[in-house]
Design goal:
Elements (H helix, E strand, L loop, with lengths): L3 H9 L15 E3 L6 H10 L3 E4 L6 H4 L7 E6 L2 H11 L5 E4 L12 E7 L6 H7 E12 L5 H8 L11 H10 L2 E15 L2 H10 L13 H14 L2 E14 L3
Length: 251
């Protein structure tokens, strides 16, 4: 069994670009929501003429869609992810666009479908602007207080229900932007870390769980976590997700 230092070295030297979590296979696991976002998104994509995926990451989800829209565009802001997405998606005819986080670089009513999995934030007014009348926004998002047990292990007690990621907040923002919410679901999902290296890798990749995380800064706390996992078994937390589907008025 690897030592504490060996586990840290493995995690620190692992590549954390993109949204591929396969490095964690056998070391951590997370339940998946029962609704099946990838399948539902692919179904909608197969019926779309002009589709846009926002914040595609490395293109991992879109690359798995069997039948893309007639015209499919994806945006991403982080240059390393743009390169990874281009390698996956351009061979399938997807247009990649750099997104600076301001106004989306598209004309009004450009798309009949906009999708996004785990966006950092949703620019609801921009989504509404680029959707044609009758068009659909379909997204799976990180919910409130996700994996908060891990945050609290390193940072202490956290306020609950004040993250701004509550589904009701998303509903209100969508409606304020002129969209009608037709589906909104929530899930709380068991997340299990089997070794301290898995925790380090996760925190390096999902940087908002413990802002400013580094192994050096939290080495003592990591040593305590390593001892706890060895003595008591895996560290268990709970991720939260919600699915939202909203349509622009008109036809």
């Amino acid at each position: 069994m690897p030592s504490f230092d060996e586990l840290l070295d493995q995690a620190v030297n692992a590549n954390v670009e993109g949204w591929d979590f396969s490095w964690l296979d056998g070391r951590a696991s997370e339940e998946r929501p029962g609704w099946g976002y990838a399948r539902m998104m692919a179904e909608r994509m197969s019926h779309a003429h002009r589709a846009l995926e926002l914040q595609t990451g490395g293109g991992e989800v879109l690359a798995g869609v069997p039948e893309l829209a007639t015209l499919t565009v994806a945006t991403e802001s982080w240059p390393p992810n743009l390169a990874r997405a281009a390698a996956r998606l351009r061979p399938r005819g997807v247009t990649l666009v750099a997104d600076d986080g301001a106004a989306l670089p598209f004309r009004p009513a450009s798309f009949d479908l906009v999708v996004s999995r785990h966006p950092v934030s949703t620019r609801w007014a921009e989504v509404s602007r680029v959707l044609r009348p009758g068009g659909t926004y379909f997204s799976q998002q990180i919910g409130p207080d996700s994996v908060v047990e891990l945050t609290e292990f390193f940072l202490g007690p956290q306020p609950r229900g004040q993250s701004g990621r509550e589904p009701a907040v998303a509903r209100g923002a969508a409606q304020a932007a002129g969209l009608r919410v037709v589906d909104l679901r929530e899930a709380r999902l068991r997340t299990v870390f089997h070794d301290v290296g898995a925790v380090v890798y996760f925190l390096r990749k999902v940087i908002w769980i413990v802002p400013g995380f580094t192994v050096e800064r939290y080495r003592a706390r990591l040593a305590q976590l390593h001892a706890r996992i060895r003595a008591e078994g895996p560290f268990v937390a709970h991720a939260t997700r919600f699915l939202i589907e909203a349509r622009r008025s008109g036809s």
